[in-house]
Amino acid sequence: MKIVIVGGGTAGWLAALMISKLKPEHTVTCIESSKIGIIGAGEGSTGALTNIIQNVMWDFGIDEQDFIKECDATIKLGIKHIGWGPDINKSYYGPIDGTPTGGQEADVIFQHALGHRDQEFLHLSTELGYKIHHNKNSFADHEGNHAYHFDAHKVGQYFKKVCTDVKHIDSEVKDVIIDSEQGWVTSLNLTDGQTISGDMFIDASGFNRVLISAVGGKWKSYKEQLPVNSALPFILPYEEDEIIEPVTNAWAQNNGWCWNIPTLNRRGCGYVFSDNFVTADQAHAELEQTIGKKVDPIRLIKFDSGRQENLWIKNVLSIGLSAAFAEPLEATSIHTTIFQLKHFILGALGQGREDTCNKGQVDAYNITNAHLYDGLKDFLVAHYTCGRKDTEFWKHINSGATSTDFVKSIHEICKVRVPNYTLFPRHEGSAGWPLWGFVLAGTGKLTDTVAQQELKFNLTEHMSDAMYSYNVQQHHANSEHLPDNTQYIKGMQS
Known about the structure:
Largest sheet: 7 strands, mixed
Number of strands: 21
Structural class: alpha+beta
Low-confidence stretches: none
Strand order of the largest sheet: 5-4-14-15-16-13-17
């Protein structure tokens, strides 16, 4: 079967890599124009990308150290949320490994940390959280549970380099040719005069959504729940004496939030805001006042958080920004692309167009992956409903106007109980209880009093201190030998 991918970047070349390696019987062509730049607004990932880079489950022929070197990558162990609450000087960590893991022991450790220790030290209940607290870099292990910070423009090029069995065409799509009887895409006319035929087409064209729009794709907006719609990305050099933590900094601002991501040679930053409350010029001025220096934004990015109503229509599958974009707060774009591709390649991709694009299969795929995106939307909404109300933007959110039924229900439960893993989405790739727990505690919805009550109710209070102490000792033993993250990165620079 001929599979044609429109668009390069991280999403397009990830698709090319995974399909060509996992289903080598198919021919893969990627149409990418050197005249069209990539968005590259996010420079962070989740553990899903680590599984690809470390060849977990499948051998993609990638060397992690090579990836790190070529993409200016550094380690990411979690996200530091700063100012997401009434006290704008407070912060909390969200380690990407997350605890609890669904087991009773892990639940108890988390509840003990919440009930008997300062909420700011909740992260000690996880191994990665312990490493964050002690500023440890685990690249030195050449393995393990971590994610990456990287130069987004270099990642797509890296995957392009390792796609040795993929045909690359440097051109743009001029016309999408559709079979009038059945509505299948049959071929693409390119601006250089070529006509490329195919059986299955993958739309990785970003916000242009070239293919999915041609077959009737409709956008389902999240703007009522996620009101930020603009971003000003910029770059900051490292200061000589700067501490470099193994985390993404997500710093809440008057009208949105700012990301600060430590890559090898500089920090990739940006202000994500709502233009319903502030203009781009005002946001720029606010940003400079906040950080105390002049910044030169690369460009203004406009977006509408949401997803395709149907991610897969006929023989067109949308991925990456063509499929969905739920703002960059939890680095979900690459994450969801990987899971979308996994669901497609392992669950749906057959020998030919007819058995691949079976209506039942397409419908099931759309239902599953719609749940994936909608669940992540709820998770993002929970970050914002943090009780902050010092500006019109935050007053609007605090009014409940942006909340969802699921978030409201979880907040009600938090008043009397500690929610457990059974309440959260179980779709592969969704944010489960481990990650929700830190956000609920960090935003003040889950309190120490409720956690203490939960320990007593479950008759685990007597053992929780010993379990917690043992857990921290194990984390110490696993981390003591690791280098300081700041020193490690500066050593790599030299």
